[in-house]
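User: I'm new to structure prediction. If I give you an amino acid sequence, what do you actually give back? Let's try with this one:
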Amino acid sequence: MPTPNRTAVIIVAAGRGLRAGPGGPKQYRTLGGRSVISRAMAAFCDHPQIAAVQPVVNPDDITIFNQAVGNIRALAPVNGGATRQASVRAGLEALVATAPDIVLIHDAARPFANDALIARAIEAATKTGAAVPVIPVTDTIKQVDAGGHVDATPERAKLRIAQTPQAFRYDVILEAHRRAAREGRDDFTDDAALAEWAGLTVATFEGDPANMKLTTPEDFAREEARLGAALGDIRTGTGYDVHAFGDGDHLMLCGVRVPHNRGFLAHSDGDVGLHALVDAILGALADGDIGSHFPPSDPQWKGAASRIFVEHAAGIVRAKGGRIANADITLICEAPKIGPHREKMVEALSAMLGIAAARISVKATTNEKLGFIGRSEGIAAIATVSVIYPGGVPA
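Assistant: Good question. You get back a string of structure tokens that encode the predicted 3D arrangement of the chain. For your 395 residues, that looks like this:
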């Protein structure tokens, strides 16, 4: 089977979640200060292998949906049906124009899918055409008759707990859903069961115990407590850099070559945005500054690409068990215009830092014709970075 170049996701969010108790549909409740559905959607919207995210919601929930997800980038929601199966089919039909190769189907009430799980789902569907994430059963299971008596004990080694995202070739699962609708079958509890009924061989891949479905009030209480303990040790650093103009025909800014009638006077390539970013990362680490790691007196850094410095600093974060949560860079200059290059800058920074583009901001402002910047003698940059380490904030 050829490797797919487009993967879409359906987020099923049309249910009422009555077992979760009072408080409205569970997917719109907050967990750790953020709505459940926004957590579920963001995992996919931020993933580099996902081309489109299609939410499916109850038509009565459009306003609360928009409030809950904020500015998360996704396709416009479509109305779900009376059953989960009908809602999934609505999502599949909505993706016809997008025509993905692979589709992942995920419950909005599972807000903890991570990048590794999503990548495994895509890989499994690519290889097999139909696959479901599973985790082992750790308890002994009893089969009980109508009178409450045990009549069988299934072999635990053969049992698995199914999760989402379940992953399929788009054309195959779409036709299976259409066939079920034609034949009046609307009783399938998940898409793997429907696929089995349609004659597909459904493979399994490694799920994630943390990828639990929120069902009861106890689930919310437990996860709220876990998130409170898992916020981690969050550290913030800032950086500032400035370079004067010299002879040249371009400037390196945030990893992008920008045409200009001047160049930078600098030992390396003079990328003020990246230099400020490196100092911000090192500041969050309390690990010196760019000059202590890459002394300007060292000839090996003469003319060096500043992305080397950024990748070095990001590597230190990972080596210490941390994660860069976001980066915000402001370029201060009268010229050149930054707007036309902003998207490429964010893409370059995403590659250097190893984080999603949605976690990176590049802004620009002038100095209102004041000072050396106002006189177009150079450019300055300010950067702020947040780094998260596991564990709580020390006393």
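You can read the tokens as a compact description of the fold. Here is one thing that stands out. The longest helix spans residues 115-128.
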